[in-house]
Amino acid sequence: MDKRILEKIKQLKEKRKAVIIAHNYQPGEIQDLADFCGDSLGLSIQAAQTDAKVIVFCGVQFMAETAAILSPEKTVLLPDKFAGCPLADMINTEQLRQLKRKNPNALVVSYVNSSAEVKAESDYCCTSANAVEVVKSLPADKPIIFVPDQHLGRFAAEKTGRDIILWPGYCHVHVVITEEDIKNAKAKYPDAIVMTHPECTEPVKELSDQILSTGQMLKFVKTSSAKRFIVATEIGMIHALKKQNPQTQFIAASDKAICPNMKKITLDKIIGSLQGLQYKVTVPEEIRMKAKKALDRMVEILPR
Ligand code: 13P
Ligand code: SF4
After folding, report:
1. Considering only CA atoms, which of 265, 258, 246 is closest in space to residue 171?
2. What is the C-alpha separation between 20 and 235, in angstroms, rounded?
């Protein structure tokens, strides 16, 4: 990596009293220069706990928004204003309100990959790491609406035995990974453990040994004695895993599983973000308060 660019980022960070946080799917060079790396919720909690005034969020819109919901007094910056999440955009407030009108007794659980407005219309939030626990904690006599990811919702339904009203959203990056990909990788590396993100399709999950969020994958590998893993999630995860476990072999289930939005963040855009304090991510106070309630309820159930 160009030392001058790194030096410039370091100087600007000091000037702005900023921290750089990066999701596990970010390009490797951005993960390497970040002050903190992690999964979506872990990063927002980091963001809330830091003393820094400015947070450069290297991830996508909903992640920066979650940080802004939890830390309204801080300046949250997304270096590329078009770094969105198509899954989060698959449901809007009007669609959720209609679903609630059809199921007036239901509790709404929204995946953190959703807009602040959708969170504000929800009773609970969850992440891929705690969806099962959140659903399990809900009263047995209450129907549950789960939005927007059908695959995570179905996984939570199977694990808890609860009937869940699903929204047909999906992540275009994870559904690209096929059964064939897993079968081929297993044939080539029969001793490898298959770790899969819950956003993958059901047939892929059935062929897997472990269904884990990105943060859980890192924890799992740390305590496992296995030497080889097939990784069914966005390929940025391979960098994070290798960095933590240099002696272990990680095989991407599919090299097509690339999130183009995550890869919109570049070193130049981080410099631009620190120089111009752009692009500020804010949430209107009324929505923020309601969305925070759904996030707080999740944290109450599971302090992570
Ligand atoms: P994690 O919360 O597991 O990091 O996942 C975020 C995400 O965007 C998955 O596609
Ligand atoms: Fe959204 Fe999928 Fe990209 Fe995650 S990997 S940010 S869910 S599009």
Report:
1. 258
2. 21
Ligand 2, CB within 6 Å, residue ranges: 60, 85-87, 113, 171, 173, 234, 259, 261-262
- CB 123 less than 6 A from any atom of ligand 1: no
* Atom number, ligand 2, closest to the C-alpha of residue 60: 6
SS3 173: coil
CA of 15 to the centre of ligand 2 (A): 32
Measured from the alpha carbon of residue 59, the closest ligand is 2
Tell me the pLDDT of the chain (304 aa) as tens digits: 688 999 999 999 999 999 999 999 999 999 999 999 999 878 878 888 999 999 999 999 999 999 999 999 999 999 999 999 999 999 999 999 999 999 999 999 999 999 999 999 999 999 999 999 999 999 999 999 999 999 999 999 999 999 999 999 999 999 999 999 999 999 999 999 999 999 999 999 999 999 999 999 999 999 999 999 999 999 999 999 999 999 999 999 999 999 999 999 999 999 999 999 999 999 999 999 999 999 999 988 864 4
Structural element, H or E, at residue 250? strand 249-252
The two tokens of residue 9 are 């980022």
